[in-house]
């Protein structure tokens, strides 16, 4: 019995390792969150595009909004995690926040939505693996393609066309900041017509974008070979 279980675990590890390596070059066929959207009747609007077809505005906006230390950490923002644990679990036992872009990609691509300790543990494993195998640019590219950016809307290309009737390559700074502002809860925070939360948050994201864009490591990730549409 033990040998059978051991064999199954080894096979499972090899299969998922092959899948992780394959995703370094191919796009995820579908995620659990996307399937859940279809089952719930929200539909599935998505259109995976390469990094070259995503405006630097969008790349910079999600870093400014979600993970300003993205170029520097190895997948985990340790200080933020420690603060969240101290503030939240001491009284409530809940797990909140502190997710880096890498952790969000691990969750969105391989796992389900939720905040249980078990899911967080598995998420940490996948975060470690994609940091080692994919690298930062691929992680950011996948994030911009699979993140939910509205009800049934996945990825910056689908969001840009849904809200602004243009491809992600041409999204402006303001538009990118508005989309990034919805990421904490894309079903609740409506991009267009902009909810109160979006209108309050996107100006802050624009300021952060301005502060970050001169950083050499940020410049490498946003790869400013495309025009930065400013309107």
The number of helices is 11
According to DSSP, the number of beta strands is: 2
- The total tally of domains equals 1
End-to-end distance, in Å?
A: 64 Å
CATH superfamily, by name, is Biosynthetic peptidoglycan transglycosylase-like
Taken as a percent bin, the fraction of beta residues is under 5%
Q: Would you tell me the overall average pLDDT? A: 86
Structural class: mainly alpha
- CATH topology assignment: Penicillin binding protein transpeptidase fold
- How many strands, what sense, and barrel or not for the largest sheet? 2 strands, parallel
Q: Widest sheet: strand order? A: 1-2
Stretches with pLDDT under 50, minimum 5 residues: 91-97
Global Rg? 18 Å
**What shape does the CA trace take?**
globular
Portion in helices: 55-70%
Q: How would you spell out the order of helices and strands?
A: HHEHHHHHEHHHH
What is the C-level CATH assignment?
Mainly Alpha
The CATH architecture name reads Orthogonal Bundle
Descriptive account of the structure:
There is one protein chain. The chain is built from eleven helices and two strands; from the N terminus they run H-H-E-H-H-H-H-H-E-H-H-H-H. It is 57% helix and 2% strand. Mean pLDDT is 86; it is low at 91-97. It has one domain: Penicillin binding protein transpeptidase fold. Helix 5 (101-110) packs across helix 7. A two-stranded parallel ribbon has the order 1-2. It is mainly α and 231 residues long.
């Amino acid at each position: 019995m033990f040998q059978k279980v051991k064999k199954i675990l080894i096979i499972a590890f090899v299969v998922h390792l092959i899948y992780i390596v394959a995703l370094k070059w191919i796009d995820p066929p579908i995620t659990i969150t996307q399937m859940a959207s279809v089952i719930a009747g929200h539909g599935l609007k998505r259109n995976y595009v390469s990094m070259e077809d995503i405006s630097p505005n969008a790349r910079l906006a999600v870093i400014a909004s979600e993970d300003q230390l993205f170029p520097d950490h190895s997948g985990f923002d340790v200080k933020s995690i420690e603060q969240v644990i101290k503030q939240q679990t001491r009284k409530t036992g809940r797990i909140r926040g502190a997710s880096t872009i890498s952790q969000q990609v691990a969750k969105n691509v391989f796992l389900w939505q939720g905040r249980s300790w078990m899911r967080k543990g598995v998420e940490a494993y996948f975060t470690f693996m994609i940091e080692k195998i994919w690298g930062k640019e691929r992680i950011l590219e996948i994030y911009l393609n699979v993140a939910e950016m509205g009800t049934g809307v996945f990825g910056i290309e689908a969001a840009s066309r849904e809200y602004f009737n243009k491809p992600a390559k041409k999204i402006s700074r303001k538009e990118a900041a508005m989309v990034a502002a919805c990421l904490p809860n894309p079903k609740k925070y409506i991009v267009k017509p902009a909810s109160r939360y979006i209108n309050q948050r996107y100006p802050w994201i624009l300021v952060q974008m301005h502060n970050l864009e001169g950083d050499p490591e940020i410049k490498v990730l946003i790869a400013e070979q495309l025009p930065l549409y400013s309107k």
